Amino acid sequence: MAGCVLQITGLILGGVGMVGTLAATAMPQWRVSAYVDGNIVVFETVWEGLWMDCISQLGIRLQCKFYDSMLALPPPLEAFRALMCVAVGLAVLSFLMAIVGVKYTPHSKEGPQAASVFILAAGVAFLLTGTLVLIPVSWTGGSIIRDFYDPQVPAPLKRELGAALYVGWGSAALLLAAGAMYC
């Protein structure tokens, strides 16, 4: 009975982590404009994401523009896009493996060993997915903090941590917890 509760809890955590990974990948709020020093232009907020830049004016008008060219992007952004897309695909795959493992655990005709392969594979996949999400989110957060405290970066170019980073950290923690439960 305790194993069933643990499996269902892992499935719920993994599902919420999967949705969070998808949301963090799609959200444009990875970097948000900071209001420091003489930069008190408060009627305009700039968001920078993996796929687009957005400008919000007075919270009323929102303009978003997708990046024009893949070749014009900086290499870290290209790598972060790739890692997050792989993480989304792996999150969906690991969630499906967890569903199969949970569904067929009590009804397995080949003994508990056959069903535990799906559970163990889902656990390893959840752990890998959590790590893949954690890398670009933490790297971006670290570079934002480094640039914020760098005196050579002009005040209008300083950014703050966006909501997508917090969603990414939360979903990475849920995916790692689900993976630990299944392993």
Automatic annotation (TrEMBL):
GO molecular function: structural molecule activity
Ranges in a coiled coil: none
Keywords: Cell junction, Cell membrane, Membrane, Tight junction, Transmembrane, Transmembrane helix
Segments traversing the membrane: 79-102, 114-141, 161-182
Main location class: other
Locations listed in the record: Cell junction, Tight junction; Cell membrane
Membrane topology label: Multi-pass membrane protein
Keyword DNA damage annotated: no
Pfam families listed in its UniProt record: PMP22_Claudin
InterPro entries linked: Claudin (IPR006187), Claudin_CS (IPR017974), PMP22/EMP/MP20/Claudin (IPR004031)
Cellular component terms per the entry's GO annotation: bicellular tight junction; plasma membrane
Family: Belongs to the claudin family.
PANTHER family xrefs: CLAUDIN (PTHR12002)
Biological function: Claudins function as major constituents of the tight junction complexes that regulate the permeability of epithelia.
Name of the protein in question: Claudin
